[in-house]
Write a structure and sequence with these properties.
Elements (H helix, E strand, L loop, with lengths): L1 H4 L11 H40 L30 H10 L14 H7 L2 H29 L3 H25 L9 E3 L13 E7 L7 E5 L10 E6 L16 E2 L2 E2 L1 H12 L5 H8 L2 E4 L6 E8 L2 E13 L3 E4 L13 E3 L2 H15 L3 H14 L8 H14 L8 H18 L18 H14 L4 H6 L1
Parallel strand pairs: 2-9
Antiparallel strand pairs: 1-2, 3-4, 4-11, 5-6, 7-8, 8-9, 9-10, 10-11
Keywords: Membrane, Mitochondrion, Mitochondrion outer membrane, Nucleotide-binding, Phosphoprotein, Transmembrane, Transmembrane helix
GO cellular component, one term: mitochondrial outer membrane
GO molecular function: nucleotide binding
Amino acid sequence: MAGVSGDRKGKKDDNGLGTALDFVLSNAKLVLGVGGAAMLGIATLAVKRMYDRAISAPASPTKMDPAGKRSWEEPSWLGSSPRLLTQDMKTNTSRSLQTLPTSPNAFEPNAVRRAGSRGRGGGKADLQKARLRFSLQDKLWGFYRRRVAIPEEEQATARRAAVDICAELRNFLHAKMPDMPLREMYLSGSLYDDLQVVTADHAQLMVPLILEKNLWSPIPGEDTIMNMPGFWLVRRENLEYFPRGSSYWDRCVVGGYLSPKTVLEAFDRVVAGSINWPAIGSALDYVIRPVVPSETLTLEVQYEVDRRLFVDFLPLVVIGDAVTLVAKPHRQAERYENLWRQSFRAAETARLRGLDQEDGGCRGLCLKVAKAVCKLTPSLHRLSSAQLTNAILLLSEREGDWAQDALADRFLQLLRELVGHLEAGRLPCALAPNVNLLSELTPEEVDELGYTLYCALSEPEGLLRTA
């Protein structure tokens, strides 16, 4: 609750009320749960901030509070959370905070220029907001240099380890199963797109299957009884003319459909059960072991004493030139075990990079900072790179200023957008709006994410300190 309780430095003696409120806020989540704690936190925050303003108000209206502290996002909470606030509470909170600045343009990139051009009255408030913005800008850049950016030498070493593993797997599969119809395997992931953060610890080994066009038919998930946009079925066809056994992949058919779970299990028996990884690791001077349990087939590679790389072995099916389906199971895998997940990653990354190249923007930088915050903050682990990427792409459709010096503004705006998507329970894919990228989250996870981000709006620097 650090983001809600605020900074009490520089405040006058409040006879213990502030301490009591801080205690209530810090323990509310344990008693009331996520949603209840957020409701109590916002209501208590309104009273606490109003009380603090009353006891610390300067004698002269032209003097600033010596502490110089002011909340980033107090006004933007008003009426913004139908999930977490009742209508009565929104009304009461709005009345309590009427004296606070409410301009939506408080943190626009030209705020300093506007503040400097105005007179002594409102100009000081605008200048204070601009200073807060620049303070966050400096902290974001410092966080990027200190925690987000990965040294090129570390990335290059991790890529070499991934290439070595890929070569060993390719040679083994060709020798052990020469009749298995596969296209050339290749490495992918954020390690190869300059979007990996914190540490170079993850890569994906893509394994394209070759399917006979006259034997297999892809079906979009929204066209099935399950109504699952973003997922596909791959149905076995023409059994009357080409009985089972006509295709190598018939052994992975479940209920008439090619099962990604069964495909992964088949590769697992080979990769995890047949390959002598200790011997290969000894020859490469690595320690290699399969990760158990794992949603996908994953190898852990210790290539230096203090460095590890996790390589996901990911079978995929390519449909035409535009659709890529990967064997990454739905979170309710037991219910949807025949569903293949459509991957938009390559197209999303290309669009993000293309937009930045057009205007010299900070979208990629903002994404990397957000990814690092989520990776280093346990309560935000469920926010994926795909969700963050699409939130930025959707924001780019409405926001045109992505200059490097607008990083603080766009980061704050991204937090607000994420809170809005979580409250609505829907984050559409920028490339396929019918796909809801939040559909696999549980209500409890949505509340936990929304609560953390909601609190962070009042003090975004807290996310960087927590990370």
